[in-house]
Specification:
The chain is mainly α and 212 residues long. It is 79% helix and 0% strand. The protein has one domain. Helix 2 packs antiparallel against helix 3 and helix 6 runs antiparallel to helix 7. The protein is elongated, with a radius of gyration of 18 Å. The two termini are 19 Å apart.
Length: 212
């Protein structure tokens, strides 16, 4: 498993995608922006390009022929993508702190506060829940998997923004109940972990049925 993960991190993933979280994190400094997009660039750019490169190189077909368990092949892919997601969140959090110091509470869209990052975790967990099980039905075709998972993440982000924007109670909560924001973050992390684990388990079952 460790060797497969190293292969994913060093060979499968383009080094640019380790810099991208920093670049996208800088977008947190735009005042009053739709900050969910900072995380969604992972869905828009990193995932489709990485899976396209894997397809071009017959990466998973080669991995199947190696003396490794399919569970580990799935686990390495899920874990490597999860590491990139956490990098996007980590860099986003750094620049979100600067954002709040500079601008305070957002006037219109959601402020990138602690609760916002809890929702960000849920959005990425939802993305994982669709991406990996759909992709590992073939472990080759990625278009439908990326499209469906990105739409799911986008709908969640749009719904969260609209609910906070038009629901007075939620708007007040997101702005002023800062002590409770940590509960949203903790819940978001747990939901992210559960969704990603469920995605992993379903992917294993589906990948076992794929012929070498």
């Amino acid at each position: 498993m460790r060797n497969l993960l190293n292969k994913e991190l060093k060979l499968t993933i383009n080094p640019f995608f380790y810099i991208l979280p920093l670049i996208m994190g800088l977008l947190m400094l735009i005042p009053g922006w739709l900050y969910f997009l900072v995380f969604m660039y992972f869905c828009f750019i990193t995932v489709p390009n990485t899976l396209a490169a894997c397809k071009a190189q017959n990466d998973l077909s080669f991995s199947i022929l190696m003396p490794v368990q399919r569970n580990d092949i799935v686990g390495a892919r899920v874990l490597s993508f999860t590491i990139l997601e956490l990098l996007h969140i980590a860099f986003g959090a750094v620049f979100a702190v600067i954002n709040i110091k500079l601008y305070g509470e957002a006037v219109f869209f959601m402020t990138p506060n602690v609760a916002f990052f809890g929702l960000g975790f849920i959005m990425l967990g939802l993305f994982n829940l669709f991406l990996f099980p759909i992709f590992f039905r073939s472990a080759y075709k990625y278009g439908v998997a990326v499209t469906v998972s990105t739409i799911a993440a986008f709908l969640f982000a749009a719904g969260a923004e609209l609910l906070v924007l038009f629901n007075r109670e939620l708007n007040v909560f997101m702005r002023y109940y800062k002590g409770d924001h940590w509960l949203v973050l903790i819940a978001g992390i747990l939901i992210f972990a559960i969704m990603t684990y469920i995605s992993y388990r379903i992917s294993i079952i589906r990948f076992r049925k794929v012929e070498a």
